Amino acid sequence: MALFRAVPWSEPAVPAIPGAGVVLRTPQMADYEPWAELRTQSRDFLTPWEPLWPADELSRAAFRRRLRRYARDLREDLAYPFFVFRIEDDGLVGGLTLSHVRRGVAQSASLGYWMGQPYAGRGYMSAAVAALVPFAFQTLRLHRVEAACVPTNQPSIRLLERNGFEREGYARRYLCINGNWADHYLYARMRED
To answer: Where is the N-acetyltransferase domain (predicted)?
Structure first.
């Protein structure tokens, strides 16, 4: 069930989502340079929490491919990617995605996010997640949003719990992070929470 009209990969397909001091909007080609700069600047900070980056991860061509994949995922109601910008200066601070959207009896999605190192610990991602939750439940009409967190990532654990996610379990070797299969805590938040 595609909720938004199909658009070329360079155009936003979902309205911007305002939050407390942040705004979430779908990535656009004009975001390439600030995205590549922030990801480059934050690489060492992000490496322990992310999958391995391909050799061309930060290239313009790879970003174009990313945008085409995002457009397809939006069109097919598979994922909803957003970049997070500070309202005060429209500066890019990070990104988050509702992925693995499941319809039918599940009505759920998985939440993933990243924060640029200069902006970590300032509340931007917490505000972004707080803004995204109503979009997931009211606009997308999901019943459940899931998240997974490496047990040593205390800031992420605090962020999820602060935003009403409850720990539901422990999954061994759940995701491949930085080239290794890593155990994760599993979290979820329901529409009625």
So the answer is: 22-192
β-bridge mates for residue 97, sequence order: 81, 112
pTM equals: 0.90
d(CA 38, CA 59): 13
Evaluate whether 63 touches 36 at the Cβ level (below 8 Å): yes
CATH homologous superfamily, domain 17-143: Gcn5-related N-acetyltransferase (GNAT) (3.40.630.30)
Distance in angstroms (rounded) separating the CA atoms of residues 15 and 29: 16
Q: Which among 111, 75, 77 has a CA at the least distance from the CA of 94? A: 111
Whether residue 1 has pLDDT greater than 70: no
pLDDT at 177: 87
